[in-house]
Amino acid sequence: MDYMAALGLLTVGARFNFFPHEIIDDRIDVVTRGFLGLTTACARCHDHKYDPIPIEDYYSLYGVFANSREPSLDRWPVIGTKAGAEDVAIQKKLT
Known about the structure:
The chain is mostly helical. The protein has one domain (3-94). Helices cover 45% and strands 4% of the residues. The protein has helices at residues 8-11, 20-36, 55-66, 85-94; strands at residues 3-4, 78-79. Strands 1-2 form a two-stranded antiparallel sheet. It is extended. It starts with a strand and ends with a helix.
């Protein structure tokens, strides 16, 4: 049995009429709120004295998301029951 990887959190979110800057900003907001428990809305435009995320860090994340591409519809990531040879080699190296 194969399972589809649960990557919809970022790829099926809001589209903002296909404005790429707004889409990337929303993805940064989702990731930082979900995984860091922080908001980064202020860091998009300016720094605060006691804010843990400076504007440089925000735009570093922006660069990561701007250079990330969504897979085409015919190549969705699938988690198979059989690990590939590369996965097995990595697991052996780690253990």
